[in-house]
Each structure stands twice: as structure tokens, then as C-alpha cells.
TrEMBL record:
Keyword list, A-Z: Cell inner membrane, Cell membrane, Membrane, Transmembrane, Transmembrane helix, Transport
Protein name listed in UniProt: YeeE/YedE family protein
Pfam families: Sulf_transp
Top-level division of the source organism's lineage: Bacteria
Subcellular location: Cell inner membrane
A GO term from the CC aspect: plasma membrane
Keyword Transmembrane assigned: yes
């Protein structure tokens, strides 16, 4: 069972919200991780490379900030075999490409802009997640 952490969740959500607003305000861009990474890898010599690299570096460095603030690294447990993580990552990548964005782009940025496409995409993500958890826990067992 996951521990209930409303204060940490509020702080994290606030930081995500501020980052998305700042990216839109200063660069006119959506904070969709799929688009940021694909733009970083596809066009490494363009003028927007620096902010993309800084955004990703911030995501990678954030556990280090937690370590500095608390004295311990965040504990993340993923109860799955590595092969399933690779398959899942591959499927998420395909879905993000087919859906023209990922959960961060559609769920955080698109829904806040009342984009119908993003609302439908987010509802699809959520429904798929609910069905997957149900099947894994109650049909397959685990």
C-alpha cells in the first residue's frame, strides 16, 4: 500500500505547476516530457536545445535535491521484472507517439488549457491504467 503524503504531494504538484507555467511563459512551450526529450535527441544543435537539456537535467537531479534536503534518497520500489519494465516503456513510447503526447503534456498542460484532445487522451490513460491494474491484480493475480 502506498503511504498517504498530502503535504509532499501538494509541494510536488505546486513545483510541477510552476515549472509548466514558467516554460509556457518564457518559451511558449508545453511541458510534455515526450516532446522535450524527442526534441532534445532529434535536434541537438538547435536554439532550444539548452532549455530542453536543462529541463531534463532538473528532472534527473531532483532526487539529489531531496538527498540534500532530507539526508536520504527517495525510496522507489517497482514490483516488476526488468523485462516487463522495458516492455512497458516501449509500449508507453509507442502510445505517446500515437497519441501526440504523453501524460505530462496532455494531463498537466493540455487539460489546464481545456484542450478536448488532451481531455480525451487523459481519460484514455486513466481508463487504461485502471483496467491494467484490475487485470494484473484480479485476473492474472499478483
Amino acid at each position: 500500500m502506498t503511504e498517504f503524503t498530502p503535504v509532499l504531494s501538494l509541494i510536488g504538484g505546486t513545483i510541477i505547476g510552476l515549472a509548466t507555467v514558467a516554460l509556457m511563459a518564457f518559451h511558449g512551450r508545453i511541458a510534455g516530457i515526450n516532446g522535450i526529450v524527442s526534441g532534445l535527441l532529434a535536434r541537438p544543435a538547435t536554439s532550444d536545445w539548452a532549455w530542453r537539456a536543462a529541463f531534463i537535467a532538473g528532472m534527473v537531479a531532483s532526487p539529489l535535491a531531496i538527498l540534500l534536503a532530507t539526508g536520504k534518497m527517495p525510496q522507489i520500489t517497482v514490483p516488476a521484472e526488468p523485462v516487463f519494465l522495458v516492455i512497458g516503456g516501449f509500449l508507453v513510447g509507442i502510445g505517446a507517439s500515437l497519441g501526440s503526447g504523453c501524460t505530462s503534456g496532455h494531463g498537466v498542460c493540455g487539460m489546464s488549457r481545456l484542450s478536448v484532445r488532451s481531455i480525451v487522451a487523459t481519460l484514455t490513460f486513466m481508463a487504461t491504467g485502471l483496467i491494467t491494474v484490475y487485470v494484473m491484480r484480479h485476473v492474472i493475480g499478483g
